[in-house]
Design a protein that fits this description.
This is DUF4283 domain-containing protein. InterPro entries: At4g02000-like (IPR040256), DUF4283 (IPR025558). The longest helix has 10 residues. Strand 1 and strand 2 form a beta hairpin. The chain folds into two domains: about 40 residues, no CATH class; about 100 residues, no CATH class. It is of the alpha+beta class and about 190 residues long. Strands 4-5-3-7-6 form a five-stranded antiparallel sheet.
């Protein structure tokens, strides 16, 4: 069911199913993040300013000894706040990259790679890939729009100059041309 201000209400068959859906996010529809929240009495339907959002982050070249929840959380913390691992990462059924749901901030850039110091002089270079990231604004420090669509940015707008055209009588034209030492161009 939809409301008149862009919000949707979903009804679930059971509380267990609702919790499964809420815990399985983040959810995206047509490339847009959907914020799901459990209904409660007095809930306010208002758009929130998103300064942090959860995204899936792929981490490459993570050493096998760090393929634990603690180790991958440590690695993902270089990008944001780690939330949870996907099933293939947690079960180690795919080890060419680790996929971690990570909360990122609009205030920080996501690195393409970073050095991970695991102690004893061992440093690993970890490559980062974020398959999808919502647009963010460097001015507002929020997700949901880019700087090109920011209401806080002053835009230069071209306004045509108001020029007035008028005709001079022939005697004024010749006086003006003489004063400027120009000759009239006549066909």
């Amino acid at each position: 069911m939809s409301t008149n201000n862009g919000f949707y209400l979903f009804k679930s068959s059971s509380d267990a199913n609702s919790l499964r859906v809420l815990d399985s996010g983040p959810w995206y529809f047509a490339g847009k993040l959907i914020i799901l929240q459990k209904w409660h009495e007095g809930i306010q339907f208002s758009k929130v300013k998103l300064s942090k959002v959860p995204v899936w982050v792929k981490l490459y070249n993570v050493p096998l000894n760090l393929w634990t929840i603690e180790g991958l959380s440590y690695a993902a913390s270089a990008v944001g706040t780690p939330l949870y691992l996907d099933d293939a990462t947690e079960s180690r059924s795919r080890i060419n990259y680790a996929r971690v749901c990570t909360e990122i901030s609009a205030e920080n850039d996501i690195p393409e790679n970073f050095d991970l110091d695991v102690g004893k002089g061992r440093i690993y270079s970890i490559d980062v890939q974020v398959p999808w990231k919502p647009p963010s604004c460097a001015i507002c420090k929020e997700f949901g729009h880019s700087i090109n669509n920011c209401n806080k940015v002053l835009r230069k707008v071209w306004v045509p100059k108001d020029t007035k055209m008028f005709l001079l009588p022939p005697q004024c034209v010749s006086l003006l041309l003489n004063k400027l030492k120009l000759s009239p161009f006549l066909p």
